[in-house]
Amino acid sequence: ATKSAGRGSYRFYIEEFTQATRTRLELRRRLHGALPGGEFTLVYQPQLNHLRQTVGAEALLRWSVDGKPVPPDEFIPLAEESGLIVPMGLWVFESACRQVAQWRAEGWQVPVVSVNVSTIQLREPGFAQALLGIAQRAGVAPASLVLEITESQLLDESLYAIALDLKNAGFALSIDDFGTGHSSLVKLKRLPVSELKIDKEFVRDIVVDPNDREICATVNALARALGLEVVAEGVETEAQWQLLVKMGCQRFQGWLFAPALAPEDLARHWLRPAVDDPLAQAVKNDS
Ligand code: C2E
Ligand code: MG
Ligand code: MG
Ligand code: MG
Predict the structure, then answer these.
(1) Hey, which of 60, 145, 201 would you mutate to test ligand 1's pocket, going by the most ligand atoms within 8 Å of its Cβ?
(2) What is the mean pLDDT of residues 91-120?
(3) How far apart are CA 233 and CA 253, in angstroms?
(4) 8 Å CB contact between 91 and 40
(5) Are 150 and 183 in contact (CB under 8 A)?
(6) Residue limits of the EAL domain (predicted)?
(7) 76 lines ligand 1 (CB under 6 A)
(8) Which residues, at least 6 apart from 12, have a Cβ–Cβ distance to it below 8 Å?
(9) Any residues with CB less than 8 A from the CB of 172 and at least 6 apart, and which?
(10) Ligand 1 in reach of 201 Cβ (< 6 A)
(11) CB 193 less than 6 A from any atom of ligand 1
């Protein structure tokens, strides 16, 4: 009996495995057609300061297959494996730049917009120049953009020179998912970054778990010592928010405030009219 049960579960495992592989292969195939097919969209999640004023927004990529959204955590790794992330990443960056220009033309006061960048993209020769060209063609200053790079991917020292190119081109750099990648202090000190994003893993239990609270407080103290800003992601409750404000975090992003939104919804609910800019106002009144 044991033997047949064993064989049964083995077969079950094989079926599950082939099913999962088939889905991955199918997803990968569909991903190849996604960019030419115009299937990607960007949504924007507001970042607020301690006064709940919008001071930033993160652009997040969305993709659906047969009407069902596929989480970025599933398709981004596939895109990285296949190299598709390179053209996709350029599309993301260009779309975000155009969106900034469009919001401005509509008369909104546009905060700094953060764009996620994969290290596969960073390794492309001439990456900083390519981004600079795209931003300039869209009429957007590099200083209005932040490039988010995941901590675990930044440990490779060969990337420091590229990070410096990006900084010299005028972009601000942010270390995403900070705390998950074991950066040494020496490396952190040498990286030309201007902000750290505390990973939502540490924010989630900050109210109940003294260890997570200590980690968040330490990241804030470290950032202060190095002159970096701290952004907290995944803020879902008032209690989490209040603790993070007390620790000195400057920016907050999470469902307590808003999920990632379509560009027009972000503008309507989270941006303010650029009253100081008569030209932008005129455009807005016309429409
Ligand atoms: P990330 O850059 O760390 O983005 C934050 C993730 O947290 C987003 O997931 C966001 O929707 C989610 N989030 C926001 N507020 C909350 C909250 O209060 N609670 C919880 N539990 N989650 C919250 P999303 O959009 O699914 O993206 C997942 C990851 O995929 C991103 O993590 C980023 O690493 C990657 N990604 C997304 N868009 C792009 C892109 O354009 N390029 C690249 N290279 N990676 C991207
Ligand atoms: Mg990010
Ligand atoms: Mg993050
Ligand atoms: Mg994250």
Answers:
(1) 60
(2) 97
(3) 5
(4) yes
(5) no
(6) 24-274
(7) yes
(8) none
(9) 112, 143, 145, 146, 147, 194, 195
(10) no
(11) no
pLDDT number for residue 13:
63
Instruction: Write out pLDDT tens, residues 193-230.
Output: 999 999 999 999 999 999 999 999 999 999 999 999 99
- pLDDT for the residue 189: 84
Q: Say if ligand 1 is within 6 A of residue 61 CB.
A: yes
CA distance to 95, 234, 263, per residue, from 101 (Å) = 10, 28, 12
Task: Identify the residue whose tokens are 């995944």.
Answer: 234
Query: What 3-state DSSP class applies to 229?
Result: strand
Instruction: State how far the Cα of 282 lies from the Cα of 105, in Å rounded to an integer.
Output: 10
Residues of the chain with pLDDT > 70, as a percent, come to: 89
- Measure Cα distances from 174 to 28, 194, 251, 284, 285 in Å: 29, 6, 12, 33, 36
Name beta bridge partners: 41: 62
Torsion over CA: 61, 229, 107, 254 (sign): positive
Q: What is the pTM of this model?
A: 0.91
Range in 72-86, 120-134, 144-158, 200-214 with the lowest mean pLDDT: 144-158
Note the residue count of the chain.
287
pLDDT mean over 241-258? 98
Which ipTM did the prediction report? Answer: 0.98
Instruction: Spell 11-22 as b/e; 16+ CB within 10 A means b.
Output: eeeeeeeeeeee
Q: Does residue 6 surpass a pLDDT of 70?
A: no
Return the residue matching tokens 């993160």. Answer: 58
Q: Is 176 in the pocket of ligand 1 (CB under 6 A)?
A: yes
Q: In terms of pLDDT, which residue wins out, 184 or 279?
A: 184
pLDDT attached to residue 277: 55
Angle (nearest 5°) at CA 243 between 229 and 43: 60
